[in-house]
Amino acid sequence: MPGSRITALGHYQPSRVLTNDDLAGMVDTSDDWIRRRTGIVTRRIADTESVTDLAAAAADKALAAAGLSPADIGLITVATCSAIDRCPSTAAQVAARLGLPSPVAFDLNNGCAGFCTALATADHAIRAGAARHALVIGAEKMSDVTDWTDRGTCVLLGDGAGAAVLSATERDDAIGPVVWGADPTRANAVRLAGDWHPHFAQEGQTVFRWVTTELPALAEEACRRAGLTPDGLAGVVTHQANLRIIEAVVRQLGLPAGTVVARDVTDSGNTSAASVPLALSKLVERGELPSGGRVLLLAFGGGLSWAGQVVACP
Question: What residues in the chain have per-residue pLDDT under 70?
Answer without folding.
Answer: 1, 187-189, 191-194, 196
